[in-house]
Amino acid sequence: MKIISLKKPLQIGLCNKAIINYDLQVLKGIESNFPIKAIAAPFQFDPQGILTHNDVKSLAELKGKTILVSTSGQASWWPWLREKYNLNAAQARPYTFNMQPFLASKNVAQQAYATSEVFQAKKAEPSSNFFLFADAGYPAYGGILVTRNDVIQAKPDVLKRFVQASMEGWKNYLADPRLGNAMIKKENPNMNDDLLAFAVDQMKKRKLIDGGDAKTRGIGVMTDARWKATRDFMVNAGLLNAKTNWKAAYTTQFNPVSK
After folding, report:
1. Closest CA to 87 of 41, 135, 120, 136
2. What class, spelled out in words, does domain 18-45+140-248 have in CATH?
3. pLDDT at 14 exceeding the cut of 60
4. Residue 12: pLDDT above 50?
5. Mean pLDDT taken over the chain
6. Percentage of the chain surpassing pLDDT 90?
């Protein structure tokens, strides 16, 4: 399931709240002086990872493989993966969200979301492997809530209630996804029960929402340390100007209150 960027509508005032796919995008927005700010991180970990055939037992064994990378991946996780495992830029080939090239060649690995492409791959090739980047230290959050700075200033109480309700919704969804799944299927008939069940199982198994800092501090929490880790990775990879005021990209004022 993909989350589209609503950075431009936020910038020009078409909406007051949105989900944006990556904290990386928010930091790039700050670099361009966009008046936006992240207010919560429902996904503590990015669901992005690599799908491989069963001869690959770890990310360290990707050398020599053709790796299918999307355009957005080229500007996010690929520079991190390439640097961490000393991969060659020439290994990357375009990923067009078609799994046939992967299934047709044992020498191909491809990007995948833990909650979607992995389901398709396991049906076609049960022995395939999936490696979540977060497990190897990729610092980015997954889907985060973002709004404009003027909205934070004008309606902090509304945003506080909005964040609390959203995080409570995630908590309830993980506990019993039936109502949420019914709404998802109504909006997108292509989503079936098996895929939705798999996605929920992956969220729970990999602690995408309630793991990390959320385990002790509550769903949606963001920390300075995580944002700095993402900032440092981006600067080192040449994705972000080192002078960018990274602390302007987020606020922790809506973090869950410890009970």
Report:
1. 136
2. alpha beta
3. no
4. no
5. 91
6. 88
pLDDT for 5 equals 46
Alpha carbon 236 to chain centroid, angstroms: 20
- Its pTM stands at 0.90
Q: What residue spans in the chain does CATH classification 3.40.190.10 cover?
A: 18-45+140-248, 48-136
Report whether pLDDT(133) > 90.
yes
Residues in the chain: 259
Q: What is the CATH number of domain 48-136?
A: 3.40.190.10
Two tokens, residue 131: 């490696």
Closest C-alpha to 234, from 26, 86, 37: 26
- In degrees and rounded to multiples of 5, residue 114 shows phi and psi of -55, -25
Counting other chains too, the contacts that 13-21 makes at CB distance below 8 Å and 24 or more residues apart are 13/148, 16/147, 16/148, 16/151, 16/155, 17/145, 17/146, 17/147, 17/151, 17/159, 17/162, 18/145, 18/146, 18/147, 19/143, 19/144, 19/145, 19/146, 20/143, 20/144, 20/146, 21/72, 21/142, 21/143
Q: Which residues contact residue 114 at a Cβ distance below 8 angstroms, ignoring those fewer than 6 apart?
A: 47, 48, 49, 130, 132, 202, 206, 208
The pLDDT value recorded for residue 22 is 81
